[in-house]
Amino acid sequence: MKRIWERMLDRSYPCGTIVQGYELLNVLGIGSYGITYLSQDQRDGKLCVVKQVKPSKKNTKKGMQAYSSETSLLQQLDHPSIPRFYQRFNFDGHFFFAMEYMEGKNFEELIFIEGREYSERQALFILQQLLCIFDYLYQNGISHRDLRVPNVIMDENEELKLIDFGLAKVMNDKDVKRDFQDIAHFLLFLLYSTYVPIQKKSKSWEEELRIHPITRRIIRRLFGLDTPYRDIRELSAELASALE
After folding, report:
1. Is there a contact between 132 and 153 (Cβ–Cβ < 8 Å)?
2. C-alpha 102 chain-centroid distance
3. Which stretches does DSSP call E strand in 94-242?
4. Among residues 13, 82, 152, 237, which one has the fewest Cβ atoms lying within 10 Å of its Cβ?
5. Which among 117, 121, 127 is positioned nearest to 243, based on CA atoms?
6. pLDDT per residue over 114-142, tens digit each?
7. E strand or H helix at 205, and its extent?
8. Angle, helices 173-192/120-139, rounded to nearest 10 degrees
9. Residue 28 to residues 50, 65, 205, Cα–Cα distance (Å)
10. Contact of 239 with 127, CB cutoff 8 Å
11. 56 φ, ψ to 5°?
12. Where are the alpha helices (DSSP H) in 149-193?
């Protein structure tokens, strides 16, 4: 009953609604605590993203903590691959904030809808770009904690963007471990884009994928199956050797 009540309560605003000078064009996604809209700033006509705390979460401690944390962390960051924070505001009794819209397509669309395929070398180059973003986050003491294929965007210049900081937090060792495991899963998604199963019975990635021993070692260390990386610099160094 609780989930049914939440679904009824968490209806998005209709397209065309104007909130604090932003026109909500369409819903980009609904997460654990927020509803995200593609929007247009009525003052300059630029596209942006507006995120609303779900009505079922706005009176909860977790919902407001997530809202406060995401807006606070985004305000600390200044990187071309991370959405710029614009403003937070209240409208109609609800909590919102606006941020930069990152142009491009996410890897869920690229792989599963457009059927893009990435060779092992291409996958490692993409990973190298991604690690540069994570290195910046770690220098600022922040862990993303939600790296998934829908949250990584590639623009028309093949530059990567990282979005959705709803689960991000001030980093600790456990968070880095989680990020590294997410990075391994992301790399596997890229590598599996060229995989054609030979038999119906599925096997482990180590049995199914024909990849270079260094790539295999990188994935195993990211998962903690072999000696884990001490930090992202050590990971980046081994990735550079793989690309050479």
Report:
1. no
2. 12
3. 94-100, 105-106, 142-143, 152-154, 160-162, 169-170
4. 237
5. 121
6. 999 999 999 999 999 999 999 999 999 99
7. helix 205-208
8. 160
9. 10, 22, 32
10. yes
11. -70, -15
12. 173-192
